[in-house]
Write a structure and sequence with these properties.
alpha/beta, six-stranded mixed β-sheet, disordered C terminus, single chain, 24 strands
């Protein structure tokens, strides 16, 4: 597949009477985006705010982060199976609004939602302190179930992101990047001396509030399959989970998956980037065995020389990670795994729930139990009512001076490494 990505850089966001993008400034009509968000009857109210890098602003509890995009040429549309029809995407031309994001927040759904600080030490750990954020805070109707509220907010976020993205349809991008992969036969002919490499992405799929969606389908209902890496750039994979904030890949990360982008940078130079293989992380042993068997089988059938495997979540999915690593290595394919660690606040605990000698090439995103102090900030978008209940926090989290003592895992997209989320660790 061949996809042209047109990047349009947003320099500022302002509220205005009309929604438009002009001279790099995104003007947002509050009434228009509010109407888009409130199309779902499960949302009682929604408010919009803007958070800019360097401001003394804290956003919490964060549910998802989405980069607005619009499909301007080619088959399908953005977020297929969610916003657009279920057409295979990843080809043609797509525009992305860079430097900004739509952030969904509001009353807590599960205990594993996060915090984004736009300044201070917390900002150092999240990429979303560097983006201009249009934040929508949703309040649910009374009596709604948690998973229904999560779905309503998720869809509202995608609708608003699609609305914002549509504003760019007639613009001229600031830059255009082309991403293209070959068919298997063509790739072997074109790059006979380069190692054949694929990316195996493990998707969180452990159940209610722990789900990822592929073309609108819950990943736990799927078997491992092959994607063209350009498909995710059109939003083929989206987040629907509320796992620990540093461990979940917001939709923004799926759209901008750094492993995919790094592999494309080396494609045709040091390696042949063959494809992306997605697999799930289910709870039962039989499901783990089945998925890891199929993943290894696909890697073998594609005659791969090397594979990068990334994990989403921690604990139970550590078993899936090691199963994938062992079985792919057993097929004679070199494997590198990307994970993070939960080694305790003192760093002395076993950092992964599973291990094997086959996992001899590991990239870590750091220890998620590391304690950080987040100072009191001037403004909170959302609410601090649930800050002690977020995974990585405790009843002692909120201190007398208004600062927060938390583990690193409470920060959305957090990593100890340069870059964002554990997917970007090198």
């Amino acid at each position: 597949m061949r996809l042209e990505m047109g990047n349009i850089y947003i320099k500022d966001i302002q509220f205005a009477d009309t929604s438009k993008i002009e001279d790099g400034i995104l003007y947002v009509d509050k009434g228009a985006v509010k109407a888009v968000a409130l199309e779902d009857e499960h949302i009682k109210t929604v408010t919009f705010d803007i958070a800019k890098p360097g401001e003394s602003v804290r956003i919490t509890p964060v549910k998802d982060v989405i980069e607005p995009r619009v499909k301007v040429e080619g088959k399908g549309g953005v977020f297929p199976g969610i916003i657009s029809k279920v057409d295979t995407v990843g080809s043609g031309k797509t525009y992305a609004l860079k430097g900004m994001a739509v952030v969904t927040a509001g009353r807590i759904v599960g205990f594993q939602e996060g915090i984004i600080d736009m300044t201070g030490p917390g900002a150092d750990y999240t990429p979303f302190s560097k983006t201009l954020n249009l934040v929508m805070v949703c309040e649910p109707v009374e009596g709604i179930k948690q998973h229904e509220y999560e779905k309503a907010v998720r869809f509202a976020g995608f609708r608003v992101a699609a609305y914002i993205g549509e504003l760019a349809r007639e613009l001229t991008p600031d830059e255009i990047k082309v991403y293209e992969t070959c068919g298997i036969k063509e790739g072997i002919t074109q790059y006979p001396n380069l190692p054949r490499v694929a990316y195996v992405q493990m998707l969180q799929s452990q159940g209610l509030l722990h789900d990822t969606y592929v073309y609108g389908v819950d990943a736990k209902k799927t078997l491992p399959t092959i994607l063209s890496p350009t498909e995710i750039m059109d939003g083929a994979i989206v987040s629907g989970n509320c796992v620990s904030a540093c461990d979940k890949n917001p939709t923004y990360v799926h759209e901008n998956n750094p492993v995919v982008h790094d592999l494309f940078e080396e494609h045709g130079k040091t390696l042949n980037f063959v494809c992306q293989i997605i697999t799930n992380e289910n709870v039962y042993l039989a499901d783990k065995e089945r998925s890891s068997d199929w993943t290894a089988k696909l890697c073998k059938m594609l005659d791969l020389d090397g594979v990068i495997v990334s994990q989403e979540g921690f604990g139970n999915p550590d078993t899936d990670l090691i199963m994938n690593c062992k079985k792919i290595e057993a097929e004679g394919i070199k494997t590198v795994i990307i994970t993070d660690e939960y080694a305790g606040r003192d760093g002395k605990s076993q950092s992964l729930a599973d291990a094997d000698v086959a996992a001899d090439a590991v990239v870590t995103g750091g220890n998620a139990n590391e304690v950080v102090i987040l100072p009191k900030l001037d403004k909170v978008i959302g609410t601090l009512d649930y800050v002690t209940k977020i995974a990585g926090a405790s009843e002692e989290t909120l201190r007398e001076d208004g600062s927060l003592e938390v583990e690193l895992q409470v920060i959305t997209g957090a990593t100890n490494e340069t870059g964002f989320n554990k997917l970007s660790a090198r």
